[in-house]
Protein backbone atom coordinates (compact mmCIF):
# COMPACT_ATOMS: atom_id res chain seq x y z
CA UNK A 1 0.00 0.00 0.00
CA UNK A 2 1.23 3.48 -0.87
CA UNK A 3 2.21 5.91 1.88
CA UNK A 4 -0.43 8.45 0.74
CA UNK A 5 -3.17 5.79 0.85
CA UNK A 6 -2.13 4.88 4.37
CA UNK A 7 -2.26 8.52 5.49
CA UNK A 8 -5.68 8.89 3.88
CA UNK A 9 -6.99 5.80 5.65
CA UNK A 10 -5.62 6.99 9.00
CA UNK A 11 -7.30 10.39 8.61
CA UNK A 12 -10.58 8.76 7.56
CA UNK A 13 -10.41 6.46 10.58
CA UNK A 14 -9.77 9.36 12.97
CA UNK A 15 -12.52 11.46 11.41
CA UNK A 16 -15.03 8.62 11.69
CA UNK A 17 -14.25 8.06 15.34
CA UNK A 18 -14.29 11.71 16.34
CA UNK A 19 -17.56 12.82 14.73
CA UNK A 20 -20.70 13.10 16.84
CA UNK A 21 -22.56 10.70 14.58
CA UNK A 22 -23.72 7.99 17.01
CA UNK A 23 -22.91 4.46 16.03
CA UNK A 24 -25.78 2.05 15.87
CA UNK A 25 -24.46 0.09 18.81
CA UNK A 26 -24.21 3.11 21.07
CA UNK A 27 -27.67 4.41 20.15
CA UNK A 28 -29.25 1.06 20.93
CA UNK A 29 -27.56 0.94 24.30
CA UNK A 30 -28.59 4.48 25.17
CA UNK A 31 -32.20 3.87 24.18
CA UNK A 32 -32.36 0.66 26.10
CA UNK A 33 -30.81 1.92 29.28
CA UNK A 34 -32.13 5.41 29.67
CA UNK A 35 -35.23 5.85 27.54
CA UNK A 36 -37.33 2.77 27.09
CA UNK A 37 -36.37 0.89 30.19
CA UNK A 38 -38.96 0.11 32.80
CA UNK A 39 -38.53 -2.22 35.74
CA UNK A 40 -39.79 -3.16 39.16
CA UNK A 41 -38.63 -5.07 42.22
CA UNK A 42 -40.74 -6.08 45.22
CA UNK A 43 -40.01 -7.71 48.55
CA UNK A 44 -42.14 -9.35 51.19
CA UNK A 45 -39.64 -9.47 54.03
CA UNK A 46 -36.29 -11.09 54.78
CA UNK A 47 -35.16 -13.45 57.51
CA UNK A 48 -34.57 -17.08 58.42
CA UNK A 49 -36.72 -18.44 55.65
CA UNK A 50 -35.59 -22.03 55.08
CA UNK A 51 -36.96 -24.51 52.59
CA UNK A 52 -36.99 -27.26 55.21
CA UNK A 53 -39.46 -25.23 57.29
CA UNK A 54 -41.76 -24.41 54.39
CA UNK A 55 -44.60 -26.53 53.01
CA UNK A 56 -45.01 -26.65 49.21
CA UNK A 57 -48.52 -25.16 49.61
CA UNK A 58 -47.27 -22.24 51.66
CA UNK A 59 -44.44 -21.63 49.22
CA UNK A 60 -46.89 -21.64 46.31
CA UNK A 61 -49.13 -19.15 48.13
CA UNK A 62 -46.27 -16.71 48.64
CA UNK A 63 -45.08 -17.06 45.06
CA UNK A 64 -48.57 -16.55 43.65
CA UNK A 65 -49.05 -13.36 45.66
CA UNK A 66 -45.62 -12.01 44.70
CA UNK A 67 -46.41 -12.73 41.06
CA UNK A 68 -49.79 -11.04 41.27
CA UNK A 69 -48.22 -7.92 42.76
CA UNK A 70 -45.34 -7.89 40.26
CA UNK A 71 -47.74 -8.24 37.32
CA UNK A 72 -49.83 -5.34 38.56
CA UNK A 73 -46.81 -3.08 38.85
CA UNK A 74 -45.53 -4.05 35.42
CA UNK A 75 -48.92 -3.45 33.82
CA UNK A 76 -49.00 0.10 35.21
CA UNK A 77 -45.47 0.86 34.04
CA UNK A 78 -45.97 -0.72 30.63
CA UNK A 79 -49.10 1.37 30.07
CA UNK A 80 -47.07 4.50 30.72
CA UNK A 81 -48.07 4.92 34.37
CA UNK A 82 -45.75 6.61 36.86
CA UNK A 83 -43.32 4.76 39.11
CA UNK A 84 -45.19 6.25 42.08
CA UNK A 85 -48.48 4.70 40.94
CA UNK A 86 -46.76 1.38 40.32
CA UNK A 87 -45.20 1.41 43.80
CA UNK A 88 -48.46 2.35 45.54
CA UNK A 89 -50.69 -0.11 43.65
CA UNK A 90 -48.23 -2.98 43.93
CA UNK A 91 -47.93 -2.43 47.67
CA UNK A 92 -51.75 -2.39 47.99
CA UNK A 93 -51.83 -6.00 46.79
CA UNK A 94 -49.26 -7.02 49.39
CA UNK A 95 -50.94 -4.95 52.13
CA UNK A 96 -54.29 -6.58 51.35
CA UNK A 97 -52.87 -10.09 51.69
CA UNK A 98 -52.68 -11.73 55.13
CA UNK A 99 -49.40 -13.40 54.09
CA UNK A 100 -47.20 -10.37 54.68
CA UNK A 101 -46.51 -8.24 57.71
CA UNK A 102 -48.18 -5.12 56.33
CA UNK A 103 -51.78 -3.93 56.13
CA UNK A 104 -54.14 -6.90 56.67
CA UNK A 105 -51.38 -9.25 57.82
CA UNK A 106 -49.67 -6.82 60.19
CA UNK A 107 -48.18 -8.26 63.36
CA UNK A 108 -49.49 -7.38 66.82
CA UNK A 109 -47.78 -4.99 69.18
CA UNK A 110 -47.47 -5.85 72.88
CA UNK A 111 -50.61 -3.80 73.64
CA UNK A 112 -52.68 -6.08 71.38
CA UNK A 113 -52.97 -3.47 68.64
CA UNK A 114 -51.62 -3.40 65.11
CA UNK A 115 -49.49 -0.30 64.65
CA UNK A 116 -48.57 0.25 61.03
CA UNK A 117 -45.76 2.26 59.42
CA UNK A 118 -45.22 3.20 55.76
CA UNK A 119 -43.26 5.59 53.56
CA UNK A 120 -42.91 6.56 49.92
CA UNK A 121 -40.40 8.68 48.00
CA UNK A 122 -40.16 10.12 44.49
CA UNK A 123 -36.73 10.22 42.86
CA UNK A 124 -37.45 13.13 40.53
CA UNK A 125 -38.37 15.69 43.18
CA UNK A 126 -36.90 14.08 46.31
CA UNK A 127 -40.35 14.55 47.77
CA UNK A 128 -41.35 12.03 50.42
CA UNK A 129 -44.15 11.11 52.81
CA UNK A 130 -44.59 8.72 55.70
CA UNK A 131 -46.91 7.62 58.49
CA UNK A 132 -46.03 5.85 61.73
CA UNK A 133 -48.10 3.93 64.28
CA UNK A 134 -51.44 4.12 62.47
CA UNK A 135 -54.06 1.63 63.61
CA UNK A 136 -57.11 2.06 61.38
CA UNK A 137 -55.95 2.79 57.83
CA UNK A 138 -56.47 -0.06 55.38
CA UNK A 139 -53.56 0.98 53.15
CA UNK A 140 -50.88 2.95 55.01
CA UNK A 141 -48.82 3.35 51.81
CA UNK A 142 -51.58 5.58 50.41
CA UNK A 143 -51.56 7.64 53.59
CA UNK A 144 -47.81 8.11 53.11
CA UNK A 145 -48.42 9.30 49.56
CA UNK A 146 -51.09 11.75 50.72
CA UNK A 147 -48.65 13.15 53.29
CA UNK A 148 -46.13 13.63 50.49
CA UNK A 149 -48.52 15.22 48.02
CA UNK A 150 -51.05 17.06 50.16
CA UNK A 151 -49.24 18.24 53.28
CA UNK A 152 -46.21 20.37 54.09
CA UNK A 153 -44.72 17.52 56.07
CA UNK A 154 -42.80 14.31 55.59
CA UNK A 155 -43.79 12.18 58.60
CA UNK A 156 -47.08 12.13 60.51
CA UNK A 157 -47.68 9.80 63.45
CA UNK A 158 -50.51 7.95 65.20
CA UNK A 159 -53.82 9.81 65.84
CA UNK A 160 -52.82 12.86 63.82
CA UNK A 161 -51.80 10.75 60.85
CA UNK A 162 -55.09 8.86 61.06
CA UNK A 163 -57.11 12.09 61.15
CA UNK A 164 -55.18 13.51 58.21
CA UNK A 165 -55.66 10.35 56.13
CA UNK A 166 -59.37 10.17 56.92
CA UNK A 167 -59.78 13.82 55.91
CA UNK A 168 -58.01 12.95 52.65
CA UNK A 169 -60.71 10.39 51.95
CA UNK A 170 -58.66 7.27 52.54
CA UNK A 171 -60.36 4.07 53.68
CA UNK A 172 -60.65 3.78 57.44
CA UNK A 173 -61.33 0.30 58.86
CA UNK A 174 -62.29 -1.04 62.24
CA UNK A 175 -59.16 -2.15 64.07
CA UNK A 176 -60.55 -5.72 64.04
CA UNK A 177 -59.83 -5.79 60.28
CA UNK A 178 -56.20 -6.44 61.15
CA UNK A 179 -56.94 -9.47 63.30
CA UNK A 180 -55.48 -12.70 61.95
CA UNK A 181 -55.34 -15.75 64.14
CA UNK A 182 -51.80 -16.63 63.11
CA UNK A 183 -50.41 -13.22 64.03
CA UNK A 184 -52.37 -13.17 67.26
CA UNK A 185 -50.98 -16.57 68.26
CA UNK A 186 -47.57 -15.29 67.33
CA UNK A 187 -47.95 -12.46 69.85
CA UNK A 188 -48.96 -14.92 72.57
CA UNK A 189 -45.92 -17.07 71.85
CA UNK A 190 -43.70 -14.03 71.76
CA UNK A 191 -44.98 -12.89 75.15
CA UNK A 192 -44.29 -16.29 76.66
CA UNK A 193 -41.05 -16.92 74.83
CA UNK A 194 -37.45 -15.88 74.84
CA UNK A 195 -37.39 -12.15 75.50
CA UNK A 196 -34.59 -11.46 73.06
CA UNK A 197 -36.19 -13.27 70.19
CA UNK A 198 -39.76 -12.42 71.05
CA UNK A 199 -40.13 -9.81 68.39
CA UNK A 200 -39.37 -12.06 65.46
CA UNK A 201 -41.40 -15.25 65.72
CA UNK A 202 -43.20 -16.01 62.50
CA UNK A 203 -46.30 -18.15 62.66
CA UNK A 204 -45.99 -19.64 59.18
CA UNK A 205 -42.34 -20.53 59.13
CA UNK A 206 -42.16 -21.21 62.88
CA UNK A 207 -38.87 -19.44 62.99
CA UNK A 208 -37.48 -15.95 63.24
CA UNK A 209 -38.02 -13.65 60.31
CA UNK A 210 -39.40 -10.30 59.23
CA UNK A 211 -42.22 -9.60 56.82
CA UNK A 212 -42.33 -6.03 55.67
CA UNK A 213 -43.28 -5.30 52.06
CA UNK A 214 -41.70 -2.88 49.62
CA UNK A 215 -41.51 -1.90 45.98
CA UNK A 216 -39.14 0.11 43.78
CA UNK A 217 -39.93 1.05 40.19
CA UNK A 218 -38.64 2.86 37.11
CA UNK A 219 -41.15 4.33 34.66
CA UNK A 220 -41.03 5.23 30.96
CA UNK A 221 -40.22 8.86 31.79
CA UNK A 222 -37.07 7.70 33.56
CA UNK A 223 -38.35 8.44 37.06
CA UNK A 224 -37.81 6.08 39.96
CA UNK A 225 -39.74 5.71 43.22
CA UNK A 226 -39.63 3.58 46.35
CA UNK A 227 -42.17 2.57 48.99
CA UNK A 228 -42.23 0.42 52.13
CA UNK A 229 -45.08 -0.74 54.40
CA UNK A 230 -45.01 -2.78 57.60
CA UNK A 231 -46.61 -3.81 60.86
CA UNK A 232 -43.17 -3.54 62.43
CA UNK A 233 -42.17 -6.20 64.93
CA UNK A 234 -44.32 -8.63 66.88
CA UNK A 235 -44.61 -7.67 70.56
CA UNK A 236 -43.14 -4.20 70.04
CA UNK A 237 -43.70 -1.87 72.98
CA UNK A 238 -43.91 1.84 73.74
CA UNK A 239 -45.05 2.78 70.24
CA UNK A 240 -41.74 1.61 68.88
CA UNK A 241 -41.17 2.75 65.30
CA UNK A 242 -38.73 0.98 62.98
CA UNK A 243 -36.92 2.03 59.82
CA UNK A 244 -39.80 1.55 57.38
CA UNK A 245 -41.28 5.06 57.73
CA UNK A 246 -37.86 6.70 58.08
CA UNK A 247 -36.70 8.29 54.83
CA UNK A 248 -33.07 7.41 54.24
CA UNK A 249 -33.26 4.29 56.42
CA UNK A 250 -36.06 2.06 55.11
CA UNK A 251 -36.91 3.99 51.95
CA UNK A 252 -35.04 6.33 49.61
CA UNK A 253 -35.28 7.42 45.97
CA UNK A 254 -33.18 9.81 43.93
CA UNK A 255 -33.20 10.03 40.13
CA UNK A 256 -29.45 10.70 40.27
CA UNK A 257 -28.79 7.29 41.79
CA UNK A 258 -31.37 4.69 42.81
CA UNK A 259 -34.56 3.78 44.64
CA UNK A 260 -34.32 1.50 47.69
CA UNK A 261 -36.76 -0.28 50.01
CA UNK A 262 -35.48 -2.19 53.03
CA UNK A 263 -36.59 -4.96 55.35
CA UNK A 264 -34.91 -6.28 58.46
CA UNK A 265 -34.06 -5.34 62.01
CA UNK A 266 -35.14 -1.71 61.85
CA UNK A 267 -32.98 -0.32 64.63
CA UNK A 268 -29.84 -1.25 62.68
CA UNK A 269 -31.22 0.08 59.41
CA UNK A 270 -31.89 3.43 61.06
CA UNK A 271 -28.43 3.63 62.59
CA UNK A 272 -26.75 2.66 59.32
CA UNK A 273 -29.01 4.95 57.25
CA UNK A 274 -29.10 2.00 54.87
CA UNK A 275 -31.23 3.24 51.97
CA UNK A 276 -29.50 6.62 51.72
CA UNK A 277 -26.09 5.10 52.22
CA UNK A 278 -26.48 2.98 49.09
CA UNK A 279 -27.48 6.06 47.12
CA UNK A 280 -24.59 8.07 48.59
CA UNK A 281 -22.05 5.42 47.59
CA UNK A 282 -23.28 5.67 44.02
CA UNK A 283 -23.34 9.47 44.07
CA UNK A 284 -20.04 10.20 45.79
CA UNK A 285 -17.98 7.11 45.04
CA UNK A 286 -19.33 6.33 41.59
CA UNK A 287 -20.13 2.79 42.61
CA UNK A 288 -22.57 0.62 40.69
CA UNK A 289 -25.92 -0.14 42.34
CA UNK A 290 -24.95 -3.78 42.83
CA UNK A 291 -21.61 -2.94 44.46
CA UNK A 292 -23.09 -0.25 46.69
CA UNK A 293 -25.89 -2.54 47.88
CA UNK A 294 -23.44 -5.35 48.57
CA UNK A 295 -21.10 -3.12 50.54
CA UNK A 296 -23.86 -1.77 52.78
CA UNK A 297 -25.77 -5.02 53.38
CA UNK A 298 -22.95 -7.58 53.48
CA UNK A 299 -20.29 -5.47 55.18
CA UNK A 300 -21.45 -2.35 56.94
CA UNK A 301 -24.81 -3.58 58.24
CA UNK A 302 -23.61 -7.12 58.94
CA UNK A 303 -20.60 -5.87 60.91
CA UNK A 304 -22.94 -3.82 63.07
CA UNK A 305 -24.99 -6.98 63.75
CA UNK A 306 -27.98 -6.03 61.62
CA UNK A 307 -29.77 -8.57 59.49
CA UNK A 308 -32.14 -8.08 56.59
CA UNK A 309 -31.96 -6.87 53.04
CA UNK A 310 -32.98 -4.38 50.40
CA UNK A 311 -34.40 -4.22 46.93
CA UNK A 312 -33.28 -1.46 44.59
CA UNK A 313 -33.45 -0.15 41.05
CA UNK A 314 -31.38 2.52 39.29
CA UNK A 315 -32.33 4.87 36.48
CA UNK A 316 -30.82 2.51 33.91
CA UNK A 317 -33.15 -0.26 35.01
CA UNK A 318 -30.61 -2.38 36.90
CA UNK A 319 -32.48 -4.53 39.40
CA UNK A 320 -31.00 -5.63 42.73
CA UNK A 321 -32.10 -7.77 45.69
CA UNK A 322 -29.36 -8.00 48.34
CA UNK A 323 -29.81 -9.64 51.75
CA UNK A 324 -27.68 -11.14 54.49
CA UNK A 325 -30.35 -13.52 55.82
CA UNK A 326 -31.09 -17.06 54.59
CA UNK A 327 -34.04 -15.78 52.59
CA UNK A 328 -36.05 -12.85 51.31
CA UNK A 329 -39.40 -12.99 49.53
CA UNK A 330 -38.78 -11.11 46.31
CA UNK A 331 -39.75 -10.64 42.68
CA UNK A 332 -38.13 -8.74 39.84
CA UNK A 333 -39.70 -7.66 36.58
CA UNK A 334 -37.53 -6.49 33.70
CA UNK A 335 -38.55 -4.24 30.84
CA UNK A 336 -39.88 -7.16 28.80
CA UNK A 337 -42.17 -8.21 31.63
CA UNK A 338 -40.16 -11.27 32.60
CA UNK A 339 -40.84 -12.03 36.26
CA UNK A 340 -38.22 -13.72 38.43
CA UNK A 341 -39.40 -14.84 41.85
CA UNK A 342 -37.13 -15.93 44.70
CA UNK A 343 -37.46 -16.88 48.35
CA UNK A 344 -34.22 -18.56 49.43
CA UNK A 345 -30.64 -17.40 49.15
CA UNK A 346 -29.40 -19.74 46.43
CA UNK A 347 -31.92 -19.18 43.70
N1 LIG B 1 -37.89 -3.23 59.27
C1 LIG B 1 -39.12 -3.50 59.96
C2 LIG B 1 -39.05 -2.87 61.32
O1 LIG B 1 -38.00 -2.89 61.94
C3 LIG B 1 -39.40 -4.94 60.13
C4 LIG B 1 -39.32 -5.75 58.89
O2 LIG B 1 -38.65 -5.38 57.94
O3 LIG B 1 -39.95 -6.81 58.85
O4 LIG B 1 -40.06 -2.38 61.77
TrEMBL record:
Gene Ontology BP terms: proteolysis
Q: Which InterPro entries match?
A: Ntn_hydrolases_N, Peptidase_T2
Q: Name one GO molecular function term.
A: peptidase activity
This protein's source sits in the domain of life called: Bacteria
Q: Which residues form the active site?
A: 212 (nucleophile)
Which positions does UniProt annotate for substrate binding?
240-243, 263-266
Which Pfam families does the record cross-reference, listed alphabetically?
Asparaginase_2
Instruction: Pinpoint the site Cleavage.
Output: 211-212
* Coiled-coil stretches noted in the UniProt entry, renumbered to this chain: none
Write the record's keywords in alphabetical order, separated by commas: Autocatalytic cleavage, Hydrolase, Protease
- Protein name (record): Isoaspartyl peptidase
Amino acid sequence: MKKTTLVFLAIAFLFYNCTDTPKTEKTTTTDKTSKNSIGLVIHGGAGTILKKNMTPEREAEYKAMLEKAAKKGYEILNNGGSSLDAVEQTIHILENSPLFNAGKGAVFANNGKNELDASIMEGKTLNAGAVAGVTNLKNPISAARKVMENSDHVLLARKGAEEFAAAQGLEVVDTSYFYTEARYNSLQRAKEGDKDKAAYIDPYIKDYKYGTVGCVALDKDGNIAAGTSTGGMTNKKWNRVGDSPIIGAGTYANNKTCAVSATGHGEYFIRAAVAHDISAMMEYKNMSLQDAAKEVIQNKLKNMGGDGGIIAIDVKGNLVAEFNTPGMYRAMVDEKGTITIGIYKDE
